[in-house]
Amino acid sequence: MEDGSAVEPVGVPAGSARRCWRADTSEGPFFLKEYESLDRRRVLFQHTVTSALDAAGLPVLAPVPARGGRTLVTSGGRGYVLYPWVAGRRRGGLELTFGQCEGLGELLGRLHAEMDRLTDPVQQSMLVPTPRAAEAVAVIDRMLEALPADGNDFAALSGRRLRERHSLLTGFADHQPPEMEVSTVGHLHGSFHAGHLRYGGSGNVTAVLGWDGLTTGPVAGELIRAAARLFACEDERGLDLDRVQAFVRGHRAAFPLDAGQIQSAVHREWWERLCDVTPLRHRYLGEEEPGKRGSQGAAALVAWWSSQLERTLDVFAAPYIDRTTYSAGPPGGSPAFG
């Protein structure tokens, strides 16, 4: 701060292990973030990207430079970064109108397009390890053995849920996606969900937060993960596919992706959720982790998604679908993944 205003920062919840404060000054409020474990190169690269996105007119906060122009100040082995304070409210994806869903998808597409323009190219072949159904089945078998044998209601519910996932894993074992896929890769936000978005009174996004997750990977993968987090109903209704379709349509308008890449990403996201049995351990074996993808709603989404494979492929990729090259269906029914 150039005027040297003395302020007394007030701690604010940060949703992470690091400490954060609100600092009220004569120039307005600011947000101060502390990095206890500092990866200097990573943080400075993040600042370069977010500053460029801000300069391009996107709702991304650039860090406020200190005297001398530094955006990262270190003291006592810890790093500190100052940002403008963000006004606005949070809104869940299911609160958005279809037009707002499409606009949000377009915003994510613009972020992807701008990051692609301003950063060095990322290698076009990426090996993404594929979870193994057999390994997940083995973990469930061990969890079933660990359930209490007293026959109480909770143990019975836990056993039923675990056996349901066991059945899905064995029934869909031949639907595993390939290890290597050709897709458009680039720099990604890394954690695009409702908790990292702020909205103004007009319903427009005023800030995209959460850039500590900045990473690289398939662009279609981030699109599908974002849609699944934003528009999940947290119960047996699964995904709000009308909002999903509007969101993906908006993204394609700003960052064109072909249907094959989108369908491949849908396939992989579903498969990774199917093979991720950590939520079951947290939910049913007393290892609850609030705020993780291990909620009861996430487990319900897996069952819904497994019954709606072909439909989700159609909806996510419409209208650019080529069913001769990629189709899906439940075992013993419609054509399976190619």
What features would you describe in this structure?
By secondary structure, this protein is of the alpha+beta class. The protein has 2 domains: 10-84, Phosphorylase Kinase, domain 1, CATH 3.30.200.20; 93-130 and 166-317, Aminoglycoside 3'-phosphotransferase, Chain: A, domain 2. The chain is 42% helix and 14% strand. The chain is built from 10 helices and 11 strands. The strands form 4 sheets. Strands 1-2-3-5-4 form a 5-stranded antiparallel sheet, with no helix packed on it. The chain has a two-stranded antiparallel sheet with strand order 6-7. It has a two-stranded antiparallel sheet with strand order 8-11. A hairpin with a 7-residue loop joins β1 and β2 (20-25). The radius of gyration is 22 Å and the shape is globular. Mean pLDDT is 85; it is low at 290-294 and 320-338.
Summary, kept brief:
The protein has 338 residues and is of the alpha+beta class. Helix content is 42%, strand content 14%.
